[in-house]
Amino acid sequence: MKNFFTGNKIKILLHLLAWAIILGIPLYFFKRWEIGKDFIWVYYVGNTINGIIFYSNYLVLVPKFFFGSRNYKYYLSVVLLLTVLYFVSDRSNEFIFKNVPGRDRMEELENQKIEGKPRVLPKPDEHFGRPPLKEMHLFNFMFTSLFLIFFSLGMRVLERHSQTEKLQKELEKEKLNSELAFLKNQISPHFFFNTLNNIYSLISINAEDSQMAVLKLSKMMRYLLYDSEHGNIKLSNEIDFMANYIDLMKLRMTDKISLNIAFPEKYTDLNIPPLIFIPFIENAFKHGISHREKSFIDISMTTDKDSILFRCANSVTKAREEIESGQSGIGLENVTKRLNLLFPDKHDLKINKSDKEFEVVLQINFA
Predict the structure, then answer these.
(1) What are the distances in angstroms from CA 74 to CA 42, 56, 66, 108, 164?
(2) Containing H/E element for 38?
(3) For residues 110 and 69, what is the distance between their CA atoms, to the nearest angstrom?
(4) Residue 270 domain-assigned?
(5) DSSP reduced 3-state for 172
(6) Who's near 153: CB < 8 A, 6+ residues apart?
(7) Rounded Cα distance, 144 and 134, in Å
């Protein structure tokens, strides 16, 4: 009941409007066609009972018993409610028609018919008032009351289904946000750990390069800790982040490594989730290069107004084969989960592996 009265105001207004029409109809006909007051009273009493049936079922019986674990209580309650209200309706009709002119005369004619006596026909100008036959009254009452029971039950079930769907969507949204936050927080420490190892190896080799690496790392960490915490970010910011990471990795590269980068110069600055592409690049630098044999990394991106096509390919080294026999990278696994959560049915991730090359092709559609 609390949900009903504190729910949508439009729903309450519709209920009030419906009752205003129902209660106003007899007043119109009463003035236009001079209908007897007794029939007006029957109409109002009948609709009052109908209202009790509808709202008792809608507000009390269905929420309390039908949605419970024991449905039989609901059906027993409905039978008891209809039985009590039928007798109330029957007695009210008897009381209303009790003093109708000609009532005694009509009962006398009925008794003559039952006893088989000759009937004295009424005069042409003689009018009678009588309540409806009990059989007809019972039929009308059961038809109307059952219609109201099923109608109110259907309304309540549909409302409950709608509320359940709404709650389910909210729960799914909360679950999505929680999983995204968890996966993103898992990517950041993993990336930070690998980058610190790279800087550590640079310190003893070139102090100037290590200082530059620390500066680039500070910009990247600012991006990780602040910029990427506010939901989606601009594609330009993500490209700058990837470029800084690649520049940082280039400090350790030798002449045996071939690096080809092709980021778009002119593009639509789309809003995208942060840290979508960097795990693939990180994975390429971690497992795709070798300082003892020739290796390569090819990274490219093309965009239009509502899609992004990203490709990252790298050579497969013997060290990578040994690592793959043990476990896969955390970043690559997490970004796959994130894509499934963020772009269901709107992305295409292809991972192609061979003895010499590992390729990732990702297309995201925003339309």
Answers:
(1) 29, 12, 5, 44, 21
(2) helix 37-56
(3) 51
(4) yes
(5) helix
(6) 57, 62, 66
(7) 15
Whether residues 163 and 227 share a domain: the answer is no
C-alpha atoms less than 13 angstroms from C-alpha of 71 in its C-beta half-sphere? 3
Total count of residues recorded for the chain: 367
Q: Decide if 199 is inside a domain.
A: no
DSSP assignment letter at 98: T
Give the chain's mean pLDDT: 78
- CB proximity list for 100: less than 8 A, separation 6 or greater: 38, 128, 129, 130
The burial of 38, by beta-carbon neighbours within 10 Å (0-12 exposed, 13-18 middle, 19 or more buried), is given as middle
Asked if 94 and 120 count as a contact pair (C-beta separation under 8 A), the reply is: no
Q: The tokens 């990203």 sit on which residue?
A: 310
Residue 263 is assigned to a structural domain of this protein: yes
Same domain for 128 and 36: yes
Note the pLDDT tens digit of each residue in 180-203: 666 566 656 666 777 788 788 778
Q: Domain span at residue 277?
A: 205-365
User: Residue 349, SS3?
Assistant: strand
Q: Which of 124, 149, 169 is the last residue of a domain?
A: 169
Three-state DSSP at 353 gives strand
In terms of pTM, does the model score above 0.85?
A: no
pLDDT tens, residue by residue, 294-331: 899 999 999 998 999 999 999 987 655 544 444 445 56
| CB-CB contact of 241 with 220 (8 Å) | yes
Q: Are 78 and 88 in contact (CB under 8 A)?
A: no
Residue 139 lies in a domain: yes
Q: What share of the chain is helix, strand, coil (3-state, %, to 5)?
A: 65, 10, 25
